[in-house]
Write a structure and sequence with these properties.
two-stranded antiparallel ribbon, Reverse transcriptase domain-containing protein, 6 strands, alpha+beta, two-stranded antiparallel sheet, 110 residues
């Protein structure tokens, strides 16, 4: 089983990898959409519950696709959580990452 890889932010040479984002009591974990990564995430969260004594409410958790994700239902079953949809222009393909520079330039012109 491999470690969680997260995603790269920035350029190929100077970018950094990000895997976790938290806000108050919410946490977002980014990883590859493959069963090994999801299984490892499930194991990490199971160990967190055992060590901390806190309980994760799995029914309140969701998995969200970014771009195309094959076997989405299988990945949700591994985590024993729901499947969410992000608002996109193409709902069946998951979230599309936009060119933020173009979007910001358009907003500044208004």
């Amino acid at each position: 089983m491999s470690w969680l890889k997260g995603f790269k932010v920035g350029s190929r040479t100077t970018g950094v990898r990000d895997m976790l984002s938290t806000y108050v009591d919410d946490t977002i974990v980014f990883c590859d959409a493959i069963s090994e990564q999801i299984s490892f995430l499930r194991l990490m969260l199971f160990i967190f519950e055992a060590i901390s004594g806190l309980k994760i409410n799995w029914r309140k958790n969701n998995i969200f696709p970014i771009n195309e994700v094959t076997q989405f239902q299988v990945l949700a079953n591994i985590l024993r959580c729901g499947m969410g949809k992000l608002p996109t222009s193409r709902e069946h393909r998951g979230m599309k990452v936009r060119n933020l520079k173009l979007q910001n330039n358009n907003l500044l012109k208004k």
